[in-house]
Amino acid sequence: MNKTRIVFLIMVGQIGNMLAQELDYETRKMEIESAVLTENRQIELYFPKDKSEAVIAFYILDGNWNHDLVKGTIAHWVKWNLMPKSLVLSVDNMGNRTRDLTPTEDDVRFLGSGGAHSFLKFISNELNPKIEKEFGNIQYKVLVGHSFGGLFTLFTLKESPGLFDGYIAISPSVWWKDRYMYSGFNSFSNTRKPFVYITAGTDDGGNTKASLDFVSWLEKKGILEKLELHFEVLEGEDHFSNVPLSLHLGIKLLFPKQKWNSDIRAAYDSGGLEELKKKTTELEQDYGIRFLFPLDALLSYALNLNLEGKLEKALELLGWVQTKQQNKYQPSYYSGYIFKNKKDNDKAIESYQKALKIGGMPDRMKTVIDREITELTSLVKKMTDFSTELVETSIAFNPDERLAFVSRHNGKWGEREN
Q1: Does the predicted model carry a pTM greater than 0.70?
Q2: Crossing angle for the helix pair 311-324 and 257-287, to the nearest 10 degrees
């Protein structure tokens, strides 16, 4: 393997680490005095300290069980630039999950059930306004629930489809009394379809068949056309092992980065930068706030163009990427690397300096860029000093041994006596 190829692999390997984010997040609990529920409710929050940042808000049911799982999962995805920055908001069930999460009374099997309408009113009229006041830049909201929580998630989709943008229902209890969930679902808007992800495990007891039957009913009634519905029965998962896997898969479907990367590369392969721009606009329109610009894929692509000797195309691509990601230093850093390969040291220095000006890199990366600038500046100075030095070349060219000399500073030939 030649040296150029090794350097290329190292540079590509760096991209993931370069894009990793240091999470400046905070965890906090709040208490809401609910007039609707006539009790105080505990809420646990995990959020970026800069509350002005745009975020995806995940509302987690059974928060006393699920908060740590969701918090850890989303922190991992955000850190590695796999999804936008997010707020996790977990609602403690306070020991009343049967009451809060079921839509009708079934006191024979589930004493105290049937309070879902009141709980939904609490979320809509009391919890939501408080959260939106404190976090003023929530761009997209997702409700996540498991078991009875999954039932309540789909109940909310049915009763108030515009309250959330996305719904993740894990092993939902859609078998609930009197086929309550088998009606309605008629009040969807004509704008963006709600994202809906329903799962069950093959070893999920009655939830497996119930979920299959429910999704079949949605299809039969033509409701699927109004939803961005994803449904999976996960092999080998039971009612509880299904939770972490479904959460992961649901997030992956919400933010299908691998698909976006593939679409972007295919667009560039078929029509160059102009086709890439069109595809990016199309994805932005299709996914809205969910779309995460595929910075890592495009940086890798630019480095590959450089390896193939297509330096101008690589620089053109990186220039456009920088206009789309003005707060990211990486496009300018890699432009500096390619200009250095071109022996255009002045533009390499300019690109590296731009990367430093944008900032946001870890200290170790700043050290690397500073070193590149220092080495290139030293090289440029040596070349300048050499080009301005009067270099005399003694060449005897006649019997009188008159000498020719050249000044590389002014580019003129002259002669002198020996």
Answers
A1: yes
A2: 50
